[in-house]
Amino acid sequence: MPIYDYTSRPAKPEPRKPRHWIFFCLLLIVGALFSLTGGNDSEESVEEPFEATATIDSVKIELILPAPEEPEPDLKWTEIEGRIQRGENFSEALIREGVARQQIFELVPALRKNISRTEFNPNLVQSGDQYAITLDSLGVIHKFEYIKRGDLERRFLADRTENKLKAWKEEIPLHREVVVISERITDSIWNALVQTDESPLLIYKLEYIFEAYIDVDNDCYPADHFAFAIEKLYNENGDFVRYGEIFAAQYTSVKNDTTYQAFRYTSADDTEDYYDARGGSLQGLFLRKPLNFTRISSGFNKRRFHPILKKYIPHHGIDYAAPKGTKVWAIADGTVSFVGPKGALGNYVEIKHKNGYKTGYGHLSKFPRGLRKGQKVKQKQTIGYVGATGRATGPHLHFNFYATVKNKYKLVKPSADNNRPTGKPLPQAHLVEFEKKRNQFLSLLDRNSGTIVTALIQDTPTIATEE
User: Is residue 138 part of a domain?
Assistant: First the structure.
C-alpha cells in the first residue's frame, strides 16, 4: 500500500526555456504587412485610437391609438303629432303615421313594464287620445308622449337612453286660481250654475258640504241664493283642468229663512273639515267621503248613460275618481258583511251600520290583509284601495249607500235625512285663528261672480299636482 506525505510541499516546476523562434516569425509577418500597405509613402499614417462602442439597433415602437371617431351623420328628426281615430287601436294609429312594426313591438313592452295597465293600457285606447312621436332618419323612436282624452293632469312618456326605451308616468304641474261663483236660482240650482258659465257638476261639491242640511234635489227653490270661493286649476298651457277645494260657501234658503255657511279649516294636526260660523262641525253621523277623491265623476242618477254598455241605465251610487291605490275607508263604525269579487262591481266590500244602514265600496284594486266577513271596523279604518276591477273604464270608487225601507235594504242617495250633524266642534284654542280666516272668507263671498281672489287667500297651499 503506497503511503502519501500530505505535509511536504510539492517540488517547484522547472522554468520553461524562451522560444526565440516565435518572436522571429512575428517580425517577418509585420514586415511583410508593412510593405503591402505602402510603407514607401512619405506621409505618416496616423491612426486614430479605436473607440470600443456598442451599436444598438434602433427600436421602432408603434403606438396603437383608437381610430378617431367619425362624426355622426346629421340625423333628421321627424316630429309626429296625432290622435287616435274612431275604430283604431294603438298599433293601427302608429302604423298610419309611418312607424315601423318593429318600433311598435319595442315601445309597447316598455310602456307595460313601468306603467300600470289600469292607468294606461295600449290595448285599450279611445278615439281622441293624443300622441306625439319623435323619429330619427332611420325610423327609430326616440321620444313618445301620450295623453288620454280629457285627462290634462298626467301624461305617459318614453325616451330612448343607451339605445333602450324607458317609459314613465308624469304628473303635469297645475296652476291655481281662486274664483268666486255666485248666482240666484230662478228655476233650478243646476241651471243657475250653468248661468255662471261654470260646470253644473259643482252641485255635487255644494251637496258634499251641506249634505247634513240641504238636499239639492228637493230643498232648492227659486229665489234661493248661493255663493262660494273655489280653486280652479290650470295646466302649463293655461288650459282649465278641474276644480279644486271650496274654501267657503254660503246658501240662503228663502223657504226656511236661513243662511247656511261653511268654512274650510285645517287644524294644527292637519285635520281638514268644514265648520259653521261658530266653529261647529258640519260632519254628520257618517263621514262625508270614503276617500280623498279628485272629483265626483258620476253622481246618484236614475238615468245615466253607461260609458261601457252604451245605454241609459240607473246609477244608484256615487263614483269618486281617484288614483289607483288611494286608501278607501269605512264612513262609520260597522261590521263587514261581504268581502270579495262581486260581478260588475269587481272587488267589493260591504259594511252594515247601526240604525239599519249599509254601505258598499266597489272596483277596489285590493283589500287590507286579514279583512274578512264578520270583522268589526271603525270609522275611517282602511277597508280597501282604489282600482278598476270589474266593469270600469278607469280607477275610481263606486260607493253605495243603503237604508232600510220596509225591512229591506234599498239603495238611496245620502242626504240630510240620514246624516244629521254629530261632529265635534273646534277646540277653544283654535277659535281665534278660525275666526280670523272666517272673516277673510266672508269678505270674498260678497264679491261679484267670476271675481278672481287668489291674492286674497292667505296661508293656503299651492296646488302642484293632484292628491
Answer: yes
**pLDDT-wise least confident of 73-77, 98-102, 369-373:** 73-77
Mean pLDDT is highest, among 47-56, 232-241, 348-357, for: 348-357
Distance CA 192, CA 195 (A): 5
183 vs 414, more confident: 183
* CA pair distance 345, 397, nearest whole angstrom: 10
Asked whether the predicted pLDDT for residue 181 surpasses 90, the reply is: yes
The proportion of the chain whose per-residue pLDDT surpasses 90, expressed as a percent, equals 43
Q: Tell me if 151 is assigned to some domain.
A: yes
The percent of residues in the chain predicted with pLDDT above 70, rounded, is 75
CB atoms within 10 A of CB 142: 16
Range(s) of the domain holding residue 369: 285-419
- Residue 63 in domain: no
In single-letter form, the type of residue at position 305 comes to: F
Whether residues 116 and 208 fall in one domain: no
pLDDT value of residue 462: 39
Residue 456 lies in a domain: yes
C-alpha distances (whole Å) from 412 to each of 254, 318, 415 are: 27, 10, 9
Say yes or no: 130 and 142 in one domain. yes
Q: Is 165 exposed, middle or buried (0-12, 13-18, 19+ CB in 10 A)?
A: buried
Radius of gyration from C-alpha coordinates of the chain:
46
Cβ proximity of 105 and 91 under 8 Å: no
For residue 160, the cross-strand partners are: 165
Same domain for 324 and 342? yes
Instruction: Give the whole-angstrom CA distance, residue 175 versus residue 198.
Output: 18
How far is the CA of 284 from the CAs of 295, 331, 354, in angstroms?
21, 10, 14
Considering the domain architecture, whether residues 252 and 187 belong to the same structural domain is answered as yes
Instruction: Give the total residue count for the chain.
Output: 467
**Domains identified in the chain, total number:** 3
Domain with residue 130: its CATH number is 3.10.450.350
Strand partners, 240: 234
Distances in Å between the Cα of 202 and the Cα atoms of 194, 241, 453 are 10, 14, 19
Pick 211 or 209 by higher pLDDT. Answer: 209
Q: Residue 192 carries which DSSP code?
A: H
For the chain, the 3-state helix, strand and coil shares in percent, each to the nearest 5, are: 20, 35, 50
Q: Higher-confidence residue: 10 or 221? A: 221
Residue 374 CA to residue 97 CA, distance in Å, equals 56
Shared domain check, 398 and 308: yes
The answer on 409 and 312 residing in a single domain is: yes
